[in-house]
Design goal:
Chain lengths: 476, 480
């Protein structure tokens, strides 16, 4: 049987506000446990939540960035359940009236563009953290994260493969960083997602029973977890079994998904409007004001790169998928406005390869955009050849010295003195009579041999264009 | 000294008839000798320190009218460093690390806190028999209930254990005990006083207020308690008027609405006749009386007993034995920790309401109960809106009966009927008052005043004018 996969994602983006969504405590990551939890975050008797307007503004910003419907009257609800790291016994979230309603995101798959629907995006507070490995028999609780604002972005079940899901997640990841509402740090859990996965026989319209994969915090794991889950469901169905609707956990160490709880035993959350918070009223003025603060969005940037800079669709897409990459590229353009293609090639070629190899983010690249610009200038002004430039790049990476300093120190400056090159060319011709004869008898390919010899003698510093010209002149 | 009002004590302090330390010590002695069980915690040492500070201020001439007045604080308000139990075993060990906004305001006014008063557990009850610390006795008759949930506060004022007290009113918890103990109690408009630091029972109904000997005293205390608080999103961003400034306005031409639903079959004859005498008094003072109707008031009790339990089932979730308060011993696992801590920590009535609320909010029942109750709430508000187009104030009984015998009402539903006339003001968020208006079989009868939104000033004025003409509020129980 041929199977089709259906995937919907729920993405939790931590909003990068200074203080929590309902208290004045700091949201800074990595502090001493429980040092950033005030009376409100601890759920002490009598405390009340006060909404952080910044969190609302950031949710609206996301909504306008994807052209979604904004609910100008939005309501906070209580989602009731017991858990030790949920201090109040309920999470303040949004049910029927989220701030952001329907919208959509475009993803690129090969040469096709696909639209993924966004059902809603609502604000909620994060829970604390239970730590199970700190004490022998006890669980420790850190409430520093409790109350951190989250934007939960819920997609339609529009994705048809793990690759599409990853593409979509990356698009959202890019967008939230572009509009500066989330730092996107997946290791720290600022950006994590749940995937709803189901399969059905190809051609069947109605959806199969889905399983929910919880709290995945890397794109690699997302792809693996979905593929694993699809395989698992296929095995079950092909053996005549049926998939149980349940929540599953992806274990990246054991590379397996396992059941956390089935929906049958799931909580009844008993949602109801939080009587401690007034409905949020969003005026037309505020909406407009936030719309004005939107920066150039990835799609607009990409279009500009294609139309104004002449980059290919592919190059423009790669360069805009991560904001820091686009920023790096645009910094280089300040020096090389006319040489966008060369800049793009260097970023996507040597730089990306080295960054990947060393697993370094572009923000922490040992070669800054300015430094790489200087190197490219030395190619354009014929100081060094493109080939030599690769060696200079390696030296820059290791030493953090400037291109000029390396060129100077290693004497890599290209030979541009015609007389000097001419002498060497003549010497090589004189020393290789049989090869000259071959060339004269029509073997054009032998030209490469001469160039190789000349480059060897000049330690690669001769300008290849000049060498080529001189050789042809002398040999003919 | 303990029969004096705020106004009188303030004058006495100013005139050096007694010092604040003497006054405080006098009250503390009375509390220690009292058999009313009105206090859960007596803060002797703190009170005497505060009294000394007050004396110093008075000596320097920096005193306000409230400086050095000894009061009792309902144990539902968080007080930094002082146990705050809300009448529950669950919080028997809880010492709040912070002050409620109301507590802070009272501290800043240089008042002297004598202690924390007894109350029905988490403010759930109409007789003060649901307290983990035992029932409070009515100062007028030790065999009778004082009313609830602010029963300790009411008994402490009526019994001369404090000059005034704070209370909270979710369904009548200021007005009903005030009525049954013969004192003046005001529940202001919802949002008039910050709820921050007040242990939540039903957030959309809870409202703090003063419980005093006179309307004038209530105005003085309200001046300090009221006001917007940025820590409470539901508190109103409205200026606080000087509530004492309109007390002496004439009430000639005042229109009083008597809702016929408040005078129906359930009302005790003696209570009814006292109320009618009081109304006649108002007529004699120049007021005009009209019969009005609040057609949906019959649904106030069912609506309230959905909304309040729903909210409390959620509000009390934080009492889970994990971070503070009662934790069951030798638990086997997490579920056992929750189940046993809550089973052992909460009393019967609290558990009953949590169960009702959990049920009413659960999947499949939400629309039938919670949403329906909210719709009824709207209808009740609309009834009031229409009535206030015709009259200035609504009057009627606070409670259908005078204080009943301790232990006599065993059926919870019968107990719920004790708040039949007070609940609807909470559902609508309107201000209401209880003022002493007579006696039936040697027990006080309270008259209820319900006003339009933000009409506290007017209510206090009407009550004060009545108290100028009557002396019910000056009566004190024999043994006190």
């Amino acid at each position: 049987m041929e199977w089709g996969t259906v995937i919907g994602l729920e993405i939790h983006a931590q909003l990068n506000t200074k203080s929590k969504i309902f208290s004045a405590a700091s949201t800074q990551y990595g502090q001493k446990p429980n040092s950033q939890a005030c009376a409100v975050d601890l759920g002490l008797p009598g405390v009340l939540p006060v909404l952080n307007v910044e969190a609302v503004n950031k949710a609206i910003k996301f909504g306008v960035a994807i052209n979604a419907h904004i609910n100008q009257r939005s309501i906070f609800d209580r989602k009731n359940y017991f858990y030790p790291d949920l201090p109040k016994g309920y999470q303040i979230s949004q049910m029927d009236w989220p701030i952001v309603g329907e919208g959509k995101i475009e993803i690129i798959l090969g040469d096709q563009t696909k639209v993924v629907g966004i059902t809603r995006a609502h604000l909620e507070e994060d829970a604390g953290k239970s730590i199970h490995d700190m004490f022998d028999d006890d669980t420790a609780i850190d409430l520093n994260r409790a109350g951190t604002p989250l934007l939960e972005i819920v997609s339609e079940p529009d994705m048809r493969s793990a690759k599409e899901a990853v593409m979509y997640a990356k698009k959202i990841h890019t967008l939230v960083q572009y509009i500066d509402i989330c730092d996107g740090n997946m290791q720290e859990g600022s950006f994590r997602c749940d995937a709803n996965v189901s399969i059905r026989p190809k051609g069947q319209k109605e959806l199969g029973t889905r399983a929910e994969l919880k709290n995945i915090n890397s794109f690699k794991f997302l792809e693996r977890a979905i593929n694993l889950e699809v395989e698992r469901q296929q095995d079950i169905l092909e053996e005549g079994g049926s998939v149980v609707q349940e929540t599953r956990l992806y274990d990246s160490v054991k590379h397996e998904t396992r059941s956390m709880r089935s929906k049958e035993e799931a909580n009844d959350y008993r949602y109801f409007p939080d009587p401690d918070l007034l409905p949020v009223e969003i005026s037309d003025e505020l909406l407009e004001k936030i719309r004005q603060t939107l920066p150039e969005l990835p799609a607009q940037k990409k279009a500009r790169f294609v139309v104004k800079l002449g980059l290919s669709d592919y190059d423009a897409d790669v360069l805009t998928l991560q904001k820091p990459l686009a920023d790096y590229f645009e910094t280089m353009l300040e020096y090389h406005a006319s040489n966008a293609k060369l800049c793009a090639n260097w970023i996507m070629g040597e730089l990306s390869a080295s960054l990947n190899k060393h697993q370094i983010d572009i923000q922490n690249s040992p070669i800054t955009a300015q430094a790489l610009s200087l190197l490219i200038s030395r190619i354009s002004d014929d100081t060094i050849s493109g080939k030599t430039a690769k060696d200079v790049f390696k030296a820059m990476w290791d030493s953090k010295d400037s291109a000029d300093k390396i060129i100077q120190a290693k004497g890599l400056k290209q030979m541009t003195d015609t007389g000097e090159i001419e002498a060497i060319v003549e010497q090589v011709i004189a020393n290789n009579a049989p090869q000259v004869a071959q060339f004269k008898s029509g073997n054009d390919k032998i030209l490469g041999f001469f160039i190789g010899q000349i480059m060897k003698l000049t330690a690669g510093k001769a300008n290849p264009k000049q060498v080529n010209e001189l050789l042809r002149n002398k040999l003919s | 000294m303990h029969t004096k009002t705020i106004v009188e004590l303030s004058q006495g302090l100013k005139d050096k008839d007694f010092s604040c330390v003497e006054l405080t010590q006098h009250y503390l002695n009375r509390i220690n000798q009292s058999d009313l069980n009105a206090f859960i915690t007596v803060t002797d040492e703190l009170a005497l320190v505060q009294a000394q500070v007050a004396d110093d201020k008075i000596a320097l001439g920096n005193a306000s009218i409230l400086t050095g007045i000894p009061y009792a604080h309902k144990d539902i308000f968080c007080t930094k460093g002082v146990k705050t139990s809300a009448g529950s075993k669950m919080l028997d060990t809880f010492v709040s690390p912070y002050d409620a906004t109301v507590s802070q305001k009272l501290n800043q006014a240089d008042l002297v806190m004598l202690g924390k008063t007894n109350m029905d557990e988490f403010a759930m009850g109409s007789s003060n028999e649901n307290s983990f610390y035992g029932a409070v006795k009515n100062p007028w008759n030790r065999l009778k209930i004082p009313g609830g949930s602010s029963g300790g506060s009411a008994a402490s004022v009526a019994g001369g254990l404090s000059c005034f007290a704070t209370g909270t009113d979710t369904g009548g918890s200021i007005r009903q005990p005030s009525s049954l103990c013969g004192i003046t109690g005001l529940k202001p408009t919802y949002g008039r006083i910050s709820r921050y630091g007040m242990i939540a029972y039903a957030s959309s109904l809870d409202q703090a207020g003063p419980m005093t000997k006179t309307a004038q005293d209530a105005a003085i205390v309200l001046n300090v308690m009221a006001g917007f608080d940025e820590k409470d999103s539901t508190s109103a961003e409205q200026k606080v008027p000087d509530y004492t400034s309109n007390l002496n306005n004439s009430i000639k031409g005042l229109t009083i609405g008597l809702p016929k639903e408040f005078f129906s079959s359930g009302l005790g004859d003696e209570v009814a006749s006292n109320i009618m005498v009081a109304i006649k008094k108002f007529e004699a003072m120049g007021a005009i009386v009209k019969e009005v109707s609040l057609p949906n008031s019959a649904y106030a009790i069912p609506a309230y007993y959905i909304v309040a339990p729903c909210e409390c089932s959620s509000n009390l979730s934080r009492l889970d034995g994990v971070r503070y308060g009662y934790r069951a011993k030798d638990v086997e696992n997490l579920e056992d920790l929750y189940l046993r801590s809550r089973s052992e920590g909460f009393g019967e009535e609290v558990k009953r309401r949590i169960m009702i609320g959990t049920y009413a909010l659960s999947a499949g029942y939400y629309d039938a109960y919670y949403l329906k109750a909210q719709k009824v709430r709207h209808l009740i508000s609309d009834d009031f809106k229409k009535v206030f187009e015709q009259v200035d104030v609504i009057m009627g009984p606070v409670s259908p009966t005078t204080a009943f015998d301790l232990g006599s009402v065993k059926d919870p539903v019968s107990m719920y009927l004790a708040d039949i006339y007070t609940l609807s003001a909470n559902l609508a968020g309107l201000p209401g008052m209880s003022i002493p208006a007579g006696f039936a079989q040697n027990l006080p009868v309270g008259l209820q005043l319900i006003g339009n939104y933000w009409s506290e000033s007017r209510l206090l004025n009407i009550a004060h004018q009545f108290q100028l003409q009557t002396d019910w509020h000056l009566k004190t129980p024999q043994e006190c």
